[in-house]
Amino acid sequence: MPYKIITKRMLNDTIALMEVEVPHIAKKAEAGQFIIFRVDEQGERVPLTIAEYDRKKGTVTIIFQTVGASTKMLNAFEEGDYILDFVGPLGKPTHIDPVTKRVCVVGGGVGNAIAYPQAKALHNAGIAVDMISGFRSKDIIILENEMQSVTDNLYIMTDDGTYGEKGLVTEKLKALLDAGTKYDEVVAIGPVIMMKFVAATTKPYGIKTIVSLNPIMVDGTGMCGGCRVNVGGETKFACVDGPDFEAHEVDFDELMKRNSFYKEREAHDKEHVCRLTGGKRHG
């Protein structure tokens, strides 16, 4: 059954937002979960995080970056067009501890599209939320107004200093911690290297830190084993055990190695179209 695109808008030159009519998914969706789409019968299965859901309208919103064949095909669709397959909700929802009082959510690049719904869920639960959002430059910033609406303090960092503060998200996080800001939990979502260094930043302070992992994924049910990650010395599957994990237990080096497994082939084999293009939630 094809699924209708209700709304489409570009957040910047390469990142698009789509609201899709999928009542059965909207009915059950929670923050932190994801869907898998397929544009046509020959298309690959691509996972994307649920950015928003509206149970009354029966819609789910996805945000994706056009980096691979399937996301480029999806981005060619317009309002009123139909996506062939749209499966979900998959994965475990974001866990909200009732004793948590204050959280810092750290997002990097397109990872802010995933960080935003988690920040919103925490905010709606009555938790004080600070958010540190990192981008390369001003021209690729997304969801600023949306993030502002669900945070007590929003800190935007840019690599080149063209907007907000110049510097890395880890630098801002450390500055806040050194200034005496107390967090019950830190949530980091973005490039693996960024999440690795956020975990390294919080560890000396003994702060519980959660990361949303994005390994290569195919079926989304734990059967293919493609999304396996090493957490606390044990093999976990991001699609069914995650995507959220305790950051200080994740083997980030192994994850980065696995995520780069196909890059050389994709770069040199021009005729090859990898069915894993895009990886977890970023398309």
Entry keywords:
disordered C terminus, Elongation Factor Tu (Ef-tu), domain 3, Rossmann fold, 16 strands, alpha/beta, 7-stranded antiparallel β-sheet, 283 residues, 9 helices
How do the strands and helices of this protein lay out in sequence?
Elements: E1 3-10, E2 15-21, H1 23-26, E3 34-38, E4 46-54, E5 59-65, H2 69-75, E6 82-83, E7 85-90, E8 102-108, H3 112-124, E9 128-135, H4 144-149, E10 153-158, E11 165-166, H5 169-178, E12 185-189, H6 192-202, E13 208-212, E14 228-231, E15 234-237, H7 238-241, E16 244-246, H8 252-259, H9 263-268
Parallel strand pairs: 8-9, 8-12, 9-10, 10-11, 12-13
Antiparallel strand pairs: 1-2, 1-6, 2-5, 3-4, 3-7, 4-5, 13-16, 14-15
Characterization of the model:
- It is a single chain.
- By secondary structure, the chain is α/β, with parallel strands linked by helices.
- It has two domains: 3-90, Elongation Factor Tu (Ef-tu), domain 3, CATH 2.40.30.10; 102-259, Rossmann fold (3-Layer(aba) Sandwich), CATH 3.40.50.
- 24% of the residues lie in helices and 31% in strands.
- The chain is built from nine helices and 16 strands.
- The protein has helices at 23-26, 69-75, 112-124, 144-149, 169-178, 192-202, 238-241, 252-259, 263-268, and strands at residues 3-10, 15-21, 34-38, 46-54, 59-65, 82-83, 85-90, 102-108, 128-135, 153-158, 165-166, 185-189, 208-212, 228-231, 234-237, 244-246.
- α3 (112-124) links the parallel β8 (102-108) and β9.
- The chain starts with a strand and ends in a 15-residue tail after the last helix.
- The model is unreliable at 266-283 (pLDDT under 50).
